[in-house]
Amino acid sequence: MSAPCVPAAPFRQFIVKVHGRCNLACRYCYLYEGPDHTWRDRPAATPPEVLEQAAYRIGEHAAAHGVTALSLVLHGGEPLLAGADTLARFTTLVRRSVPATCTVHATVQTNATLLTRHRVGVLARHGIRVGISLDGGLPAHNAERVDRTGRPSWPAAVRGARLMADHFPDAYAGVLTVVDPVADPVAVYESLLTLRPPALDLLLPHGNWSAPPPHIGPPDGETGRRPAPYGDWLCAVFDRWWAGRRRETRVRLFEECIALLTGLPAATESLGLAPFDAVVVETDGSIEQVDSLKSAFDGAARTGLDVFRHGFDEALRHPGVAARQAGVAALGAHCRVCPLLAVCGGGHYAHRYRAGEGFANPSVYCLDLQRFIRHVARRLAAAVSIPAADRIPAETDVHGGDTP
């Protein structure tokens, strides 16, 4: 399907791979254990000349589009393998490259095992916040997150998380957790609260119609519909979060769903129809689409561009990027008639893929998203004493009657 012609929204999220390898060997990792192998032919550590040129291109793009604020995500692999000083120098270089009117919000996304007081001190002094990736707040939740000798990463990771909470709360961005529907949802949420994150990101595992995520089973023999284990899990955590006597932490997915249901704008890769505004710079300087696409097929994120020969405006014209900015026009027929469209937005782009058909499909999590969004809508309706029938579209099977 060709990308519809719509005005391009500038990139405002720049994900820069400062190191292309990881010190862990998580057993479920879609990046290193998935179908995409492009990482194998790229340098491990990003050369200084790539970082310098990436900073120049970010500044060029920000100036050309009058961007007043952008997000710089220092990523990997495990970005701390590049050294905290390298991250600090690069962030400073980006801030010097953008116009004086542009604010750079810098974050490093880490597995927390390499966090030390010295390293975090360097990051904090340079205005770099720390986001941590964990599967929960207990050792059992992180059993699949092991190092390259098979040893558990949890002891080092929890030390890093507690270091942030105890000594660097202002630099603590939060925790990113991938949903495991087998794990007790409330227990996972409450265990994460013990790490005192200012925010939680709950992400669905990357999967698609050709490579379904775990625990999505066949349809029920009587109803013809399959269960929605991920939706059920999210609903259980939402109820615990919603019922709290105080707001114990932000949960971005929940806040964004509420915003969209009440007609407010929300920017997220998983919900809504806002133009997607993120781009990746790989360790060799390649300009790519986001890593999640690599869960679909080998080379799915490639654009054929690099920071030495191309500006980011050329990436905006790439068909894959244009499709992600096209909103409703890029969605399949089932999504376009769905009453939840404005909130769901078709779900995460990578989760719509089917081999031979591309991405113009409903999300493989369609039923889970329906379950979650309707549940949140009912809770909102009850909170403001509006009959649910006036706020929530009747449930419809718009996922095409298809199952993985």
Write the layout of secondary structure elements.
Layout: E1 13-17, H1 48-65, E2 69-75, H2 84-97, E3 103-110, H3 117-125, E4 128-133, H4 154-167, E5 172-178, H5 185-193, E6 199-203, H6 229-242, E7 250-251, H7 252-261, E8 278-281, E9 286-288, E10 302-306, H8 312-316, H9 319-324, H10 333-336, H11 341-344, H12 366-383, H13 388-391
Parallel strand pairs: 1-2, 1-8, 2-3, 3-4, 4-5, 5-6, 6-7
Antiparallel strand pairs: 8-9, 9-10
What does this structure look like?
The chain has 404 residues and is an alpha/beta fold. 32% of the residues lie in helices and 13% in strands. It has a ten-stranded mixed β-sheet with strand order 7-6-5-4-3-2-1-8-9-10. Helix 2 links the parallel strand 2 and strand 3. The longest helix is centred in the first third of the chain and has 18 residues. The chain is globular and about 60 Å long.
Which features would summarize this protein structure in a list?
alpha/beta; 10 strands; globular; TIM Barrel; 2 domains; ten-stranded mixed β-sheet; 13% strand; 404 residues
